[in-house]
């Protein structure tokens, strides 16, 4: 009979060493074992980031938060991710502000950031 703290999903053997971990900590541990994606910044994106640092630091911080979120989970999360069908199925965007978007290309092992300003 499973104990009160046994998870409903399969847990890696190394995580089972502790007699009673919380479900939340096991879930976080399992999510961190996924290999990280490589971030590739196109020159236009870097110029856009320099623009935001020079003009509006708050928006620059928001853009960097979106970059981190896109590396963790490219298809869900903050910024309302949506595919850009007119640019191809692998290109996605997230909202920086009401006017500006962050566009990125998702590959299997990397995420290429294309644009960090304007609307596509």
Could you give the order of strands across the largest sheet?
Answer: 1-5-4-3-2
Name the helicity range. Answer: 25-40%
User: Major beta sheet, specifics?
Assistant: 5 strands, mixed
Oligomer status: single chain
Any idea what the radius of gyration is?
Answer: 18 Å
Secondary-structure class: alpha+beta
Q: Tally the helices: what do you get?
A: 3
Strand content: 15-25%
Measured between the Cα atoms of the first and last residue, the distance is: 55 Å
Assign the CATH architecture of the domain at 38-115: 2-Layer Sandwich
Low-confidence stretches: none
Could you please say which CATH topology of the domain at 38-115 applies here?
A: YaeB-like fold
Q: For this structure, what is the CATH homologous superfamily of the domain at 38-115?
A: RelE-like
Order of helices and strands: HEHHEEEE
Strands, total number: 5
Quickly name the level 1 CATH class of the domain at 38-115: Alpha Beta
Provide mean pLDDT, rounded. Answer: 82
Q: Overall 3D geometry?
A: globular
